[in-house]
Design a protein that fits this description.
It is found in: Membrane. Helix content is 66%, strand content 2%. The chain is built from 15 helices and two strands. The two termini are 48 Å apart. It binds protoporphyrin IX containing FE.
Length: 392
């Protein structure tokens, strides 16, 4: 029957304009999502929650921090000892950084495993890669701020690595350090970078999420939503996201209160001393795979290119994987094995990064690097053939 629906008393049943759901409710609350999304799809919400925590704790810490080589370490000690609940804020910011990076890596691996980078979500993937780089730079700049031994020598190693670039290396090193060696100008730069990038990340996350909502979520089965069935974002996924955030919050408090030394680096509780190089200079755990790859090559430029390339290759993933459509071509066992090799390779390079790069550890780092690159440069392009072979 054509025409507007009419109820038995003859009144028009179509909602009046003021009863129509707003754009926000339509775009988010009622957004239809594949019914078979699993718990890995809660990581995005967890990332947003930790990002909010990082911004709030970071902004509060800024009130008492001084970016000056002579004062920075003391100002951080002041936060720990004299600022009300300063120790808690700093611990939350430091532990939050590790939780954020862990969640980010799981989010990325989920995208790789389920091939969420396939059209029409290429732009989502690319904005995610952009976010990864921005978060890494922010985390690095933040680690320099307390001006402990690792902060100082980390900045020194990074400055020298940048300096190894041909042609522009020397100039870039000068821009990065603001002088011949790390000092107050370096701290000003790192502080500005850390503070400014945090807001750019928020803007970029907003774009990233808007893109996901515009393009629709992929799903574990990679089947279209007409086959999997759809459920509205609220209440089905909001409730699960909130439960996941609560569980992560409980774990977070557990680590913060009962296992604080899990994340803190003892050497960074000693003030920066330009005259004393620590026996082992090592970055935070989340940079270790890239640090291991950088050390595994005997000449600086090669190490820099290969460790930078390990992040850069992620941008090319949608084009390296030539399998058509979102349906997963390679059998599940092959995909699990490939991602397991990728993770083990990254862990091997990270473990090697913790040791003096010689003998056995040099071999481990190189094997780790080969395994890591093999996923992107051999497995992804070849899996298209696996699919075609399987389909034939
Ligand atoms: C600040 C960091 C990030 C935040 C806050 C964030 C947040 C989110 C959120 C809320 C979603 C929707 C829910 C979900 O699918 O989990 C999402 C989806 C997605 N993200 Fe991220 N993300 C971040 C970084 C990344 C990175 C580094 C990548 C990969 C390089 C990435 C790739 C994706 C992809 C491909 C999707 C769509 C997944 C699908 O098809 O359903 N994101 N992200």
């Amino acid at each position: 029957m054509a025409g507007k629906p009419v109820c038995h008393n003859g009144h028009d049943t179509e909602p009046a304009a003021q009863d129509q759901p707003g754009a926000w409710v339509r775009a988010y609350g009622r957004l239809p999502l594949p019914a078979d999304l699993n718990w890995l799809w809660t990581i995005g919400a967890i990332l947003c929650a930790i990002l909010a925590l990082m911004l709030l704790s970071g902004l509060t810490l800024t009130l008492a921090y001084t970016p000056d080589a002579g004062l920075a370490f003391g100002s951080v000690e002041g936060i720990e000892r004299r600022m009300p609940a300063g120790w808690l804020l700093r611990a939350m910011h430091m532990t939050g950084a590790s939780f954020f990076m862990l969640a980010l890596y799981i989010h990325l691996l989920r995208g790789l495993y389920y091939r969420s980078y396939q059209p029409p979500r290429r732009a989502v993937w690319l904005s995610g890669c952009g976010l990864l780089v921005m978060v890494m730079v922010t985390a690095f700049a933040g680690y320099v701020l307390p001006w402990g031994q690792m902060s100082y020598w980390g900045a020194d190693v990074a400055g020298k690595a940048v300096g190894a670039l041909p042609l522009v290396g020397g100039w870039l090193e000068g821009v990065f350090l603001g002088g011949d060696a790390p000092g107050t100008p370096t701290l000003h730069r790192m502080f500005a970078l850390h503070f400014g990038l945090a807001f750019l990340i928020v803007a970029m996350v907003a774009g990233h999420i808007a893109h996901v909502h515009a393009r629709g979520s992929s799903s574990p089965s990679a089947r279209p939503v007409e086959v999997t069935g759809a459920l509205p974002f609220h209440p089905y996924f909001t409730v699960r996201d909130m439960l996941a955030i609560v569980l992560v919050a409980i774990t977070f408090v557990g680590v913060l209160c009962f296992w604080p030394e899990l994340i803190a680096e003892p050497a960074n509780y000693r003030p920066a001393n330009p005259l004393h190089t620590p026996a082992d200079i090592e970055p935070e755990w989340y940079f270790l795979p890239f640090y291991g790859m950088m050390q595994a090559v005997p000449f600086k430029l090669g190490g820099l290119l290969l460790s930078g390339g390990a992040v850069a290759v992620l941008f090319a993933v949608p084009w390296l994987d030539r399998r058509a459509g979102a349906a997963c071509g390679a059998p599940a066992l092959v995909r699990v094995f490939a991602v397991a090799v990728l993770i083990c390779s990254a862990v091997a390079a990270a473990c090697a990064g913790l040791h003096h790069m010689q003998g056995y550890w040099l071999l481990v780092a190189r094997l780790g690097m080969v395994g890591y690159y093999a996923y992107f440069l051999a497995y992804l392009p070849l899996s298209g053939r696996l699919q075609r072979g399987g389909a034939a």
